Structures are given as structure tokens and as C-alpha cells.
């Protein structure tokens, strides 16, 4: 989830790469304080009864084309095929989100590069089951000492509770999937879902 902090934005870095990329590009252009908030997509889907859109065959067919168009438009590295949908739906992101949550609790300044690196590996290179977290962390600029510290934290009650809390917070704001962005404008939260709501978001925050 991403939180725009007036104006504040909250983004949950799981499967929202297009929105994440654009907000990170605009955070120094728009008058916003961008705050990344790790939340667990699986927990949000289960709590709201939502289902992956690509489980509807025709929608999945459309999504495949649309994602490729968006990747070209936003100039982000993405390789995806029809078979990737089933691979992705069958892969748990819980371990990655706990690692990212541990980072949020330790050195939140690394959230952006770490989230980006996990996303690229997840969509473009391999499943998380075969990703060596230390390699992801190194690519994101983390030291081996910090990486080891985070790996030791991910099974702790503190990290598990923190991820649960931020996930529940996203649901309270009305999130039912990702990307979910909460823009706080003049003390009022505004929820935006999907990476195709950037124009509406800009309008609400006066940009």
C-alpha cells in the first residue's frame, strides 16, 4: 500500500510495480510525501473475498495484452506470458513481504530499491521459491550484515504482527487488492485502486 502524506500517499509494495514506479518518479515533482507500507496481498484477498482477475479467462487474456502495453508505456522491464499467470498465482509472497517488513522496521530508506528488485525477480526472472533472498538484497544495495539481520527477524512475532497490522490497516481503508494507494488530503483519506487511476489521484491532490 502507498500512502501520500499534505498530501501523504501510502503504497503496498507487492504486485503494484507500475504504480510504484510512477509514484517514485513523481515524488519529487508532485507536492507529496510518499510512504511505502508493506502489506500482504493474500491476506487482503482472503479477507475481502476477492479473486485474481485472470481467473476469468477472457479477463486474463485481456490483462496479458494490457500488462505488455503498460510495460512499454511506463518503460519498465517486464516479460510475461500466459503460463506466467498460473506460476504467479501458485507462488506465495509471504516470505518476501516479511523480509520487506523487517526492512521497513529497520531501515525504511531501502524499501523502494528492495521492493523494486523483488518485483523484477518475481515477474521477469523466476518464482520466489527459487530466489535467493541474499542475492535480491545485494542487488538492492544491502550489506551482507544487514541482510543477515533481516533474515533473522522474519520469523519473529514482531515482524509477523507488523505485517498483519499494516494489512489490516489497508483493509480498513477499503483495500480489496493491490495496488492500493491512500492519499491523505486535508486530513481526509482517499483510496485509489489500480495503476490506471493516476490522473484521478493527481486531480484529488491538486497536481
Automatic annotation (TrEMBL):
InterPro entries: DSBA-like_thioredoxin_dom, GST_Kappa/NadH, HCCAis_GSTk, Thioredoxin-like_sf. Its EC number is 2.5.1.18. It comes from the Eukaryota. Keywords: Transferase. One of its GO terms (molecular function) is glutathione transferase activity. The keyword Hydrolase does not apply. Pfam families: DSBA (PF01323). Residues 18-204 form the DSBA-like thioredoxin domain. GO terms for biological process: glutathione metabolic process. It catalyses: RX + glutathione = an S-substituted glutathione + a halide anion + H(+). One of its GO terms (cellular component) is mitochondrion. Belongs to the GST superfamily. Kappa family. This is Glutathione S-transferase kappa 1. The gene is Gstk1.
Amino acid at each position: 500500500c502507498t500512502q501520500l502524506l499534505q498530501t501523504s500517499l501510502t503504497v503496498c509494495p507487492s504486485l503494484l510495480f507500475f504504480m510504484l514506479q510512477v509514484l517514485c518518479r513523481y515524488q519529487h515533482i508532485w507536492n507529496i510525501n510518499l510512504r511505502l507500507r508493506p502489506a500482504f496481498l493474500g491476506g487482503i484477498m482472503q479477507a475481502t473475498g476477492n479473486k485474481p482477475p485472470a481467473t476469468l479467462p477472457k479477463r486474463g487474456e485481456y490483462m496479458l495484452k494490457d500488462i505488455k502495453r503498460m510495460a512499454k508505456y511506463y518503460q519498465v522491464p517486464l516479460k510475461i506470458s500466459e503460463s506466467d499467470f498460473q506460476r504467479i498465482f501458485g507462488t506465495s509472497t509471504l516470505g518476501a513481504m516479511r523480509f520487506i517488513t523487517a526492512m521497513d522496521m529497520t531501515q525504511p530508506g531501502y524499501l523502494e530499491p528492495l521492493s523494486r528488485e523483488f518485483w523484477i525477480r518475481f515477474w521477469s526472472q523466476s518464482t520466489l521459491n527459487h530466489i535467493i533472498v541474499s542475492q535480491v538484497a545485494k542487488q538492492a544495495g544491502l550489506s551482507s550484515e544487514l541482510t543477515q539481520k533481516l533474515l533473522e527477524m522474519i520469523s519473529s512475532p514482531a515482524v509477523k504482527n507488523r505485517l498483519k497490522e499494516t494489512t489490516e490497516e489497508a483493509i480498513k481503508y477499503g483495500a480489496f487488492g493491490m495496488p492500493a494507494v491512500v492519499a491523505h488530503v486535508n486530513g481526509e483519506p482517499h483510496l485509489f485502486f489500480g495503476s490506471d487511476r493516476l490522473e484521478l489521484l493527481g486531480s484529488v491532490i491538486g497536481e
